[in-house]
Design brief:
seven-stranded mixed sheet, Alpha-Beta Plaits, transferase, four-stranded antiparallel sheet, ATP-binding, kinase, 2 domains, cytoplasm, binds ligand LJ64HWYM, Ribosomal Protein S5, domain 2, alpha+beta, threonine biosynthesis, binds adenosine-5'-diphosphate, globular, 11 strands
Length: 307
Amino acid sequence: MKEITIYSPATSANLGPGYDIFGLALEEPYDLVNVEIIESSCKCCEQIKISVSGEKAEEIPLDPTQNTAGVVALKMMEDFNIKECVHIKIQKGIKPGSGLGSSSASCSGVAVAMNKLFNLELDNLKLIKYASLGEAVAAGAPHADNVAPGIMGNFTLTTSYEPLEVLNILLDMDVVVALPNIQVSTKEARKILPQEIPLQKLVNNVGKATGMIHSIYNKDFENLGKYMMGDQVVEPCRATLIEGYDEAKEKVKEFAYGITISGSGPAIIAIPKNKECSSEIAKIFKEIWNCPVYETKVGKGAYEVKD
Ligand SMILES: Nc1ncnc2c1ncn2[C@@H]1O[C@H](COP(=O)(O)OP(=O)(O)O)[C@@H](O)[C@H]1O
Ligand SMILES: N[C@@H](CCOP(=O)(O)O)C(=O)O
C-alpha cells in the first residue's frame, strides 16, 4: 500500500463536569487525512510534507513541527525508524479553534493512517498516546479527551494520564452542535481556569460526572443532560467567552435535556428531546449566532475510507 485516506471525526470534549476526561465522537463534521509514501528523492527538504485544504486552511501551519498531524507523524517515524518520506494531505471539514477537536482530528487521523500504512500493529491506547502528542502543540497540554473518542468512537473516559487509561462506552444519541463565529483558542481557554478548587466543588463535579455515567448505562438522557449542566468549575469560567450562550441556554430549555460548551468552545452542544426538538434547537442556534449548526449524532472513531 502506498497511500491511505482516513475519515477523522469531530469530537466534543468535557461535556460539563468531565474536563479532560469525557469525550464524544460525532458523525459530522469531519476531516479527511490522506498519507502517501513519496519518493525519497522528492524536492521537499524534510521527511514530511504537509498540504492543507478546506476550512480556514490558510491559518494552519505547514511546518511538521507546528502542525498537529506533523508532530504525531514525526514521533512515529522516529520511534519506528521509518525512513520513507510521506506527504500528509489534510482536508479540513472542522474549523480550527472550534471546540470540536479540529486540531485533534488531524492527530487521530494521521496516527491511524501511519499505523496502517507502515503495518505498525499498534493498539488503540498506543494510538491515543501518539495522537495526544499533537495536542501539546495546539493546546499546550497533551489532553486526550478529543483524540480518545476520535480513535475509539462513541463516548470515552480518559480515566488516567500517567499511565494512560481510556474506557469506551457505546452511546446511541442525537446531538445538536452550533459553531458560533467567535474565536476561542484552547491554549488561552485553559489559562483562564482555576488551578485550585474548593472541596465542595470537587464533590459536586464528581457527583455530576458519576451521575452521567449511570444515566448513559440506563439510557436516561433526561438525567444525562441535567448532570451535564452541573459543572461548577470549568463551564462557568468559559461561558463568559461566548456571547449569546446564556440566551441559548434559556431558549432551548423546552427542547433540550441539556446544553453545554463543547471542548473549550465556542461550539455549543445540546441533547435534543426528540427529532422535532432537534430542529427547534437548530433554529434557535441559527437565530442567535447565524452560524453553522450540525444536527448530528454520536459516531465512530477514525476509519479508512475506501473508494
Ligand atoms: N492540523 C491542524 N488542524 C487544525 N489546527 C491545527 C493543526 N495544526 C496546528 N493547528 C493549530 O491548532 C490551533 C487550533 O487548535 P484548538 O485551539 O485546540 O482548536 P480546536 O478546538 O478546533 O481543536 C490553531 O492555532 C491551529 O493553527
Ligand atoms: N479538555 C480540553 C478540550 C479542548 O477541546 P477543543 O475541541 O476545544 O480543542 C479543554 O477543555 O481544554
